[in-house]
Each structure stands twice: as C-alpha cells, then as structure tokens.
Amino acid sequence: MINLNGSIVDQQQAQIPFNNRGTYYGDGVFETLRCYEGKPLLFEAHYFRLMASMRILRMEIPQSFTPEFIEEEITNLLAKNNFTQGHARVRFTVWRKPGGFYTPQDRNVEFAIESSEIDGKYQNPSSREVELFKDHHVVSGMLGNLKTAQKMVNILAGIYAQENDYQDMLLINEKKMVVESISGNLFLRSGDTIKTPPLSDGCLNGIMREQVLSQLKMMLNYKVEETTITPFELQRADELFTTNMIRGVQSIHKYRKKAYETTCADELIELINGRYFGA
C-alpha cells in the first residue's frame, strides 16, 4: 500500500496524470527516511529540509503540510504495511501539479509516500570499490544541495558502476572537485584530520552528513574540516567513507590501486547504532 495525496491505496491501483511535472520536467523533490519501530528517525530534520527545498523551488506549500500531519501520514502507512517492528525505508515525494511547459501554470503540489522493509541496524560493507565518474558533473551551488527528482548524473554514474563492476562512483563538479558519491556524502580522513566537501561545492545537504559532523566534532581524536577535496587527495588519504540515512556510514575499501582503512567508519557505526537502535 502507498499513500497518494492523503489516501491509502494499493500500489498497483495508484494513478497519477501521465503529464505530471515530475515525469515531464523532474519538477519535484523527495525525502528518504529511515524508520525504526514504526517511527521515522530524525523526522524534524527531514521535515525542515523538505520545506526549505519546496520554498527554494517556489512550490506552493499546502497549509496541511504541518509536521504533525506529515509524520502521522508516514506512521499510518507504516502501520498499514505492518512495518511497526524493525526497520523500514520511507520515501516522501512531492511534485508540482500538471500544466504549462517549463513554466508551470499551477504551483500547487501533489504527494506520495511509499514504504519498504530493510535489513537491521547499520553495517559496514566488507568490500566496496569506487572510481571517479568523469563523463558528467554535478553543478556547484544551492540546487545541488536539494534532493530533486532530477538526478541524471547519479543515474548515469550508477549505470557506469554497474557496467564496470564498481560498488559506487565518486561525482565531481564543474570545477573538477570531488563532491559526493552516487547516493551519499563523502568524508576523507588523513591522519587525524577529516574533510568533507562544503555545501557550496554542490553536495547534498545530507541529514546523516550533519549527524556525522556533529559526532566527529565531539570526538577529541579528530579534527573536522568542511573544505574542497581534489581528486589528487583521494590516493593520499588513509580512509574514505560515505554517509546517508538508509545505509548509515559505509567505508570505501579501494580506489584504483589504493586500499583504505576503516577505523573511523567502524567507530561511527557503533556510536550511531547505539544512539538510534540501542545496540
């Protein structure tokens, strides 16, 4: 079952207009939430990011889109799909109503919520090799910080990884600086210094990115910097890892001929699992 504009309907029966602007122009935004025991984690952070994204994209925010309304819609769907125990993934998608060409005739929105079961607590993968994706680049600036429905660079990078037997790809911006991976923010450790690209470089304003930054700043054994990362730094680093809400912290084990440690990522995973899942 899914939630389509506030109604719980069977996924196979759900219908949206063929000319919806999400399909035609990528005119939409979404949030991906990790849920535990029937409740979304860090809901407030997701809610305010969604509202900020809708404002930046000049969408008309419905008066009904209060934190209480959206959280209740999510928890009701989780209950309907029997996801009140264990772990689940929820995607909340918003798109502008049909009409117009590039310029919309109607700034009002429609929405859908879908949920699926996922495995247990966060775990670090045993093997993950990456490469630099140079065919296309993300654009630095504010639009790159949003989870929009238009993710063509990520899609093409995913196809490249699939065709070449990589587990992820690192994306660069128009200045040839390393920005993020296909589905997560990037962190680089050299000695006791940990770097992550600033939002101005075009990386996603990730919820887990903020959680990891806050955690690292409390750990006295590391110095944290939000600064540009060049491709040349990748092979000189001691450790690379990526973050997102669904997978948590994931180590990168190999880039070209360079093999990496997993020390900091392992430590973060243990701390984050303890905070959210009590284990």
From TrEMBL:
Species annotation: Nonlabens spongiae
Similarity section: Belongs to the class-IV pyridoxal-phosphate-dependent aminotransferase family.
UniProt keyword annotations, A-Z: Aminotransferase, Pyridoxal phosphate, Transferase
Enzyme class: transferase
Catalysed reactions, semicolon-separated: L-leucine + 2-oxoglutarate = 4-methyl-2-oxopentanoate + L-glutamate; L-isoleucine + 2-oxoglutarate = (S)-3-methyl-2-oxopentanoate + L-glutamate; L-valine + 2-oxoglutarate = 3-methyl-2-oxobutanoate + L-glutamate
Pfam family, one: Aminotran_4
A GO biological process held by the record: carboxylic acid biosynthetic process
Protein's UniProt name: branched-chain-amino-acid transaminase
Cofactor(s) in the UniProt record: pyridoxal 5'-phosphate
GO MF, any single term: branched-chain-amino-acid transaminase activity
Coiled-coil region list: none
Known pathway: Amino-acid biosynthesis; L-valine biosynthesis; L-valine from pyruvate: step 4/4; Amino-acid biosynthesis; L-isoleucine biosynthesis; L-isoleucine from 2-oxobutanoate: step 4/4; Amino-acid biosynthesis; L-leucine biosynthesis; L-leucine from 3-methyl-2-oxobutanoate: step 4/4
Enzyme Commission number: 2.6.1.42
